[in-house]
Amino acid sequence: MPTDHRHPADQAHPTTESRPPTVPARPEPETQAEQLIELGLAAAAGISAPDLRAAATGVPAEALLVLAALPVTTLTRALRYQGKPAFVVADMSDVDRFTPIEDLDLPGGECYAVTDLDRGDQLRNWSPVEALPQLRTAGRSPLTLAEGLHWLLQQPQVLVANHCFMTIGSRLRKAGGKLDARTPALWISAGTGRDGKQRKGAAKVGWCWARNRHTWLGFASAAARHPVPPT
């Protein structure tokens, strides 16, 4: 994994050429619900198609609809990017044990809505330990890995070479109580190493050390999470 140890303030401002292409608007919540039903994720979460359709009518426009109960491995299997199946890196077989960080207040219920998503490009080349307090100061909340995957299921174009993102709202707490040093991220495989050449260009669930910086990884966040009214 490439690492740049220069402080973020030392980085040159991105040039016009480095800016990612415009991402198409997110589908309406009702369309998002149909996508989750079609992929079999509603059934996997134990939500009937009629109930999810009804729930989507209470989701704010432009918000992201999230199914609360689905493990990361299930979401990853459902994701296709550039015609290829997404995958979890070989040394993250415990990915489903990564849970929301303690001060992350997730709504209860089977599903909820996330508003004002941002990929966090302005924090590229910050480390996770540097970026988290910056997000909090800005009044924003880091996305969980599951929320990041829901985002890509609805808007795969959000994932762009050199503009990928971390989801530091999810961490693994070890038996002794300390946090595992790995922080989850979503990026595009180069098809090298254990990924395999056949996976070049596929979406990848991976990780980076909590104190490392990467020029090509932002920090995905949201303004708020909202409970979806019961159906």
Topology at a glance:
Elements: H1 29-38, H2 41-44, H3 49-56, E1 64-67, H4 72-78, E2 80-81, E3 84-85, E4 87-88, E5 99-100, E6 111-115, H5 128-137, E7 141-142, H6 145-154, E8 164-166, E9 170-171, E10 182-188, E11 203-209, E12 217-219, E13 221-222, E14 224-227
Parallel strand pairs: 4-11, 8-12
Antiparallel strand pairs: 1-6, 2-3, 5-9, 6-14, 7-13, 8-10, 10-11
Helix pairs in contact: 1-3, 4-6
Please tally the β strands and state the result: 14
Runs in which pLDDT lies below 50 for 5 or more consecutive residues are: 1-17
Rounded Rg: 17 Å
Tell me the β content: 15-25%
Order of helices and strands: HHHEHEEEEEHEHEEEEEEE
Going across the major beta sheet, what is the strand order?
A: 4-11-10-8-12
The biggest sheet, with number of strands, parallel, antiparallel or mixed sense and barrel status, is: 5 strands, mixed
Please work out how many helical segments DSSP would assign.
6
Share in helix: 10-25%
- End-to-end Cα distance, whole Å, is 45 Å
